[in-house]
């Protein structure tokens, strides 16, 4: 039986080109090889910094969606999808974010988290179908693709836009085309990779930085922190229980015993204990004001006329 060759696509992207700074890679000593990789990695933060205005717009759209009772969707294939999956998974334990807030659509599904399912990224209809079945008007959808052309991702974004969701794309290809129907374009030009085409390297690092900054900023804007403290976390193990007490001590300047007592009075609710200690009101009043301010500690303290430390 004759095998029909699959279609080949030429991707015009800096990430696919040879890097003139690493052409002697296979001649280098181990230490010099690592230095070469590290030198390229140093270029990534500046590329991300150049895209911060667009990223800020994406954050504001995501916050608007979540405040309106909608959801945030991540869409990616390969490295992009795996990074998105990890980012979303870490938001529940870190910020007590409801698991339904962030939904990940990874080309190839769960199997692709551990093994490469390369053809899945070429399936535009599946990408579109996943978003058509799960997104709603008012949602926010963030796509990630180094090349800016992955059919699964672009199909998903188009379907989301047709439903009335807002969309954004993180990509590393200044030559990408066909992106005019996306609300926010977050171009992070990381240039050629250390190994040509290996976008799990600089492009992947950039996506990790973007995702971490994006989700952290969204959580901060939604009041899931107080100052730079993780006050929305749930203490589900010994380490986190210790962190809870440390956060209270850092935020109030009080002793460990005083913080432990307050936490007991607040029935383990860190924010309630914090507002109680900083304002002097009883825990039930603290809980009521927090509920009225959507869990924002600073807003609750302002309502109570308390001075934040």
Features:
Helicase, Ruva Protein, domain 3, alpha/beta, 309 residues, 5-stranded parallel beta sheet, 49% helix
Give a short summary of the structure.
With 309 residues, this protein is α/β, with parallel strands linked by helices. The protein has two domains: 14-221, Rossmann fold, CATH 3.40.50.10490; 238-303, Helicase, Ruva Protein, domain 3.
**How many domains?**
2
Question: Taking Cα atoms only, what radius of gyration do you get, to the nearest Å?
Answer: 23 Å
The amount of beta strand, in percent, is 5-15%
Q: Determine and state the CATH class of the largest domain.
A: Alpha Beta
* The named CATH superfamily of the largest domain: Glucose-6-phosphate isomerase like protein, domain 1
Structural category: alpha/beta
Number of helical elements: 14
Q: Helix amount, in percent?
A: 40-55%
Could you say which overall geometry the principal axes of the C-alpha atoms support? Answer: globular
- As laid out across the biggest beta sheet, the strand order is 2-1-3-4-5
| Biggest sheet statistics | 5 strands, parallel
Uncertain runs with pLDDT below 50, 5 residues or more? 1-5
CATH architecture of the largest domain: 3-Layer(aba) Sandwich
- Mean of all residue-level pLDDT scores: 92
- Oligomeric assembly: single chain
Order of helices and strands: HHHEHHEHHEHEEHHHHHH
Distance between the amino and carboxyl termini: 75 Å
Give the beta-strand count: 5
Secondary structure topology:
Layout: H1 30-41, H2 44-50, H3 52-67, E1 72-76, H4 79-89, H5 91-95, E2 102-106, H6 111-114, H7 124-134, E3 140-144, H8 151-163, E4 166-171, E5 184-187, H9 202-221, H10 238-252, H11 256-265, H12 270-279, H13 283-292, H14 297-303
Parallel strand pairs: 1-2, 1-3, 3-4, 4-5
Helix pairs in contact: 2-9, 3-9, 4-9, 7-8, 10-11, 10-12, 11-12, 12-13, 13-14
């Amino acid at each position: 039986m004759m095998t029909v060759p699959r279609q080949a696509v030429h991707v015009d992207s800096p990430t696919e080109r040879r890097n003139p700074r690493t052409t002697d890679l296979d001649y280098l000593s181990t230490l010099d090889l690592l230095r070469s990789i590290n030198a390229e990695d140093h270029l990534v933060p500046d590329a991300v910094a150049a895209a911060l205005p667009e990223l800020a717009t994406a954050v504001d759209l995501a916050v608007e969606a979540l405040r309106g009772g909608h959801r945030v969707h991540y869409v990616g294939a390969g490295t992009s999808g795996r990074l998105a999956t990890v980012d979303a998974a870490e938001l529940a334990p870190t910020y007590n974010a409801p698991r339904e807030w962030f939904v990940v659509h990874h080309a190839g599904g769960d199997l692709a988290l551990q093994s490469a399912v390369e053809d899945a990224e070429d399936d535009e209809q599946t990408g579109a179908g996943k978003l058509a079945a799960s997104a709603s008007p008012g949602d926010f959808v963030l796509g990630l693709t180094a090349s800016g052309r992955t059919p699964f991702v672009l199909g998903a974004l188009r379907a989301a836009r047709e439903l009335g969701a807002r969309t954004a794309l993180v990509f590393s290809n200044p030559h990408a085309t066909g992106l005019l129907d996306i609300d926010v374009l977050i171009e992070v030009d990381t240039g050629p990779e250390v190994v040509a085409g290996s976008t799990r390297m600089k492009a992947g690092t950039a996506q990790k930085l973007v995702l971490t900054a994006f989700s952290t900023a969204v959580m901060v804007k939604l009041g899931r922190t107080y100052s730079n403290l993780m006050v929305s976390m749930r203490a589900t193990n010994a380490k986190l229980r210790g962190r809870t007490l440390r956060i209270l001590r850092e935020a109030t300047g009080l002793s460990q015993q005083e913080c432990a007592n307050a936490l007991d009075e607040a029935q383990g609710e860190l924010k309630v204990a914090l507002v109680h200690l900083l304002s002097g009101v009883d825990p039930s009043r603290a809980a009521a004001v927090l509920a009225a301010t959507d869990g924002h500690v600073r807003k609750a303290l302002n309502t109570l006329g308390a001075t934040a430390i």
